[in-house]
Amino acid sequence: MKLGIDEYASLNSPLHRWDARYKLVGLIILVFAFSFLRDLRMLLAMVLVTAAIYIVSGLPARFILRWLRFPSFIILVIVLTLPFLSGETVIANLGPLALHQEGLLAALLIAVRFVCIVTVGITLLGTTPLLNSIKAMRALGLPLIMVDMALLAFRYLHELGQDLGRMLTSMRLRGFRQHSFSPAGLKTFAWLSGSLLVRSYERSEWVYKAMILRGYGQSSRPQGEFKTHPADVFILVAVALTAAALVAGDILLGHNIAAILQ
Asked: Which residue from 45, 82, 149, 180 could staple onto 107, CB 3.0 to 4.6 Å apart?
């Protein structure tokens, strides 16, 4: 099974060439800045910054559309129901439902901020091989046990996917219809899930014993996996200043509104 999140990680855009450590720090700073914004007038600036980052990355449009559709279902329910449940100013009546201005604006802020944050996150993962991202986290001081867990999960997720594919193929050859909904089908899927869980537990024990026999836990932190260039620092500073400018603009606009109301 291929995750596909880093299928375009071999491109040669400025973001692809950016040191993975600085990229991780810079884009996470930007994500936190996006999450801090509250003023609706900052939405356009946030969208422009996100669009600029994605354009510079060189990733195709179909890539972001494919990966946005999965997390979008999480926020869709909130965005669709919030305008009818929150607020006091009614702008339209749709039968028994009342559309509120405050709820509509809040839903707009949530939706735009969500799309921008997820887009930056996908750009971060899409421009760096996942293995390099994990190594960058280790170089930045992430506890070694967490890094090793992430590496093993990444490695054996593919193995579990291949096991699942083989088991589904075997079931289809025996007459199982995957898309049918019935008590027998649910029972079969429960058996399949339990079998995968047992397989993954057994494999984890084998891997752990093999690692212990090879001296796991005795090696020191590897050095020199990444090399810093002046351009890496320059891009990090530029991204950090952009994030600071967005937060400062949001704070200033909020203070101006408070002064007018007083």
From this structure: 82
HEC assignment per residue over 181-216: CCHHHHHHHHHHHHHHHHHHHHHHHHHHHHHHHCCC
For 63-112, write each residue's pLDDT tens digit.
888 888 877 877 888 888 888 887 778 887 777 778 888 888 888 999 99
Domain total in the chain: 2
Mean pLDDT of 168-186: 71
In the block, residue with structure tokens 């559709």: 69
Within a 10 A sphere around the Cβ of 253, how many other Cβ atoms? 16
pLDDT for residue 258:
47
More confident residue, 42 or 186: 42
> Which residues 6+ apart lie within 8 Å of 85 measured at CB?
100, 103
Distance CA 244, CA 109 (A): 19
Q: Do 61 and 191 fall into the same domain?
A: no
For residue 200, give the nearest of 168, 167, 165, 163 by alpha carbon: 163
22 and 122 share a domain?
yes
Mean pLDDT of the chain: 82
My answer on whether 117 and 206 are in the same domain is no
Whether 51 is in a domain gets the answer: yes
Same-domain check for residues 162 and 39: no
What percentage of the chain exceeds 70 in pLDDT? Answer: 89
Q: Left (φ > 0), alpha (ψ -120 to 50) or beta: where does 111 sit?
A: alpha
**Torsions phi, psi for 15 (to 5 deg):** -70, -35
Q: What is the pLDDT of residues 130-152, one digit of tens each?
A: 888 888 888 888 787 777 777 77
- 132 and 204 share one domain: no
User: Which letter does DSSP use for residue 140 in this model?
Assistant: T
The domain in which residue 197 lies consists of: 143-213
